[in-house]
Structure formats: C-alpha cells, structure tokens
Design a protein that fits this description.
The chain has 92 residues and is an all-beta fold. The chain has no helices and nine strands. The protein is 0% helix and 33% strand. Strand 3 and strand 4 form a beta hairpin. The two termini are 27 Å apart.
C-alpha cells in the first residue's frame, strides 16, 4: 500500500487522508502513482479522457502504461483530482 497523504478540499476545507490505489502492472508488480504532497487537489468540474489518465513507469520492468488518475470524493459532494507526478513519456 502506498503512503497516505493529507488532502484538503478547497470547497469545504475538510482534511482527508488519502492513499493512492496500488494496481498490478502486466509483469505483476504493484504500481502506485506518486502523489505530490505539496500540491493542492483540484475539484473535477469537467471530465476528459486525457485528464482521467496518467502515464506511469513500472519500477520493476520499466514498462510505461496508462493508469487511472487518483480521485477522492469529499463528504460535501466535491470530487477532487489528487495531483501525481506522471511520466510524460508516450505509451508504446
């Protein structure tokens, strides 16, 4: 499991503890998106296919693949996009 980080909702100022999901790579290794601890979460007001995915590199096999961008639902009804450090490399 990835280390949890504090996420603040900009709409209601509630604090949440968020641990990004860990998903398996094609090689079987666990991959978790590296959450940016100092960046503010952004409310999701509009969805686009490109914004819902982030490219990550598997630390075991080196494969670049697309993973769902982590989101958190606040009790106030706001959906927050948690900022992660993605890899700008194209998916092959």
């Amino acid at each position: 499991m990835a280390d949890p980080v504090r996420v603040s909702c900009p709409a209601c100022r509630r604090e949440h503890l968020f641990a990004p999901p860990v998903l398996p790579c094609a090689c079987g290794a666990p991959v978790a998106p590296p959450v940016l601890r100092d960046a503010a979460a952004e409310p999701v007001s509009e969805r686009t296919w490109a914004d819902d995915w982030v490219t990550l590199r598997c630390p075991v096999c080196g494969r670049h693949d697309r993973w769902p961008r982590p989101e958190l639902g606040c009790d106030c009804g706001t959906v927050l996009r948690v900022p992660v450090q993605g890899d700008p490399a194209p998916v092959v």
